[in-house]
């Protein structure tokens, strides 16, 4: 008699982070991952512990994030329908992919993309999905600051303290601002990000856009490798994880 085969699955999830104390499981706190683990365990009637690709802070949203889990149990043909019926309205499981047993949601990710939303006129529908910033800004300077970021690879300045990472090197693939109606959106893609990095970049660039920091001073801030010179004070609700990229063919 042969034993059951353990299979590994990647799940593609989207969530509104407003009600959660971040993504990663924490003791005595409601998190996105803990809700997903509970829903999967309920549906499969066995304990399920997921591994996430990217941690997001309290209040941060994701249009796409991935997790993986292992199970010997067969999945119901209507797995997606059933799991979404269990999950709360602010979390949706969009797809599930069977992957090789050695595939890893975090370590196999080639890159991640984020967007940060600012809105210039009071809007009740953007309150928990953007940063109300009604100040005059030079968007040309913002764009130049975003381009400067691509010249660097060491982002020690934009990493919050008390982090356990071994390296502060990141390869920035895209960094630019777009203007949509009355919204201003920062778009950034990299192979990896440090804790608080996107919000630190946005907050510091906004100082450039408002004329409180010159472009040369912005260069100096990055080169200083001193996190006390960055501005992390932008709120979490404007930040969205929008994409996690994997090697072609992994997600069949």
TrEMBL record:
It holds the Pfam family PseudoU_synth_1. It comes from the Bacteria. It catalyses: uridine(38/39/40) in tRNA = pseudouridine(38/39/40) in tRNA. Keywords: Isomerase, tRNA processing. Gene3D superfamilies: Pseudouridine synthase I, catalytic domain, C-terminal subdomain (3.30.70.660), Pseudouridine synthase I, catalytic domain, N-terminal subdomain (3.30.70.580). Substrate binds at residue 114. One of its GO terms (biological process) is tRNA pseudouridine synthesis. InterPro entries: PsdUridine_synth_cat_dom_sf, PsdUridine_synth_TruA, PsdUridine_synth_TruA_a/b_dom, PsdUridine_synth_TruA_C, TruA/RsuA/RluB/E/F_N. One of its GO terms (molecular function) is RNA binding. Its EC number is 5.4.99.12. The keyword Methyltransferase does not apply. Homodimer. NCBIfam families: hisT_truA. HAMAP family: TruA (MF_00171). PANTHER family: PSEUDOURIDYLATE SYNTHASE (PTHR11142), TRNA PSEUDOURIDINE SYNTHASE-LIKE 1 (PTHR11142:SF0). Belongs to the tRNA pseudouridine synthase TruA family. This is tRNA pseudouridine synthase A.
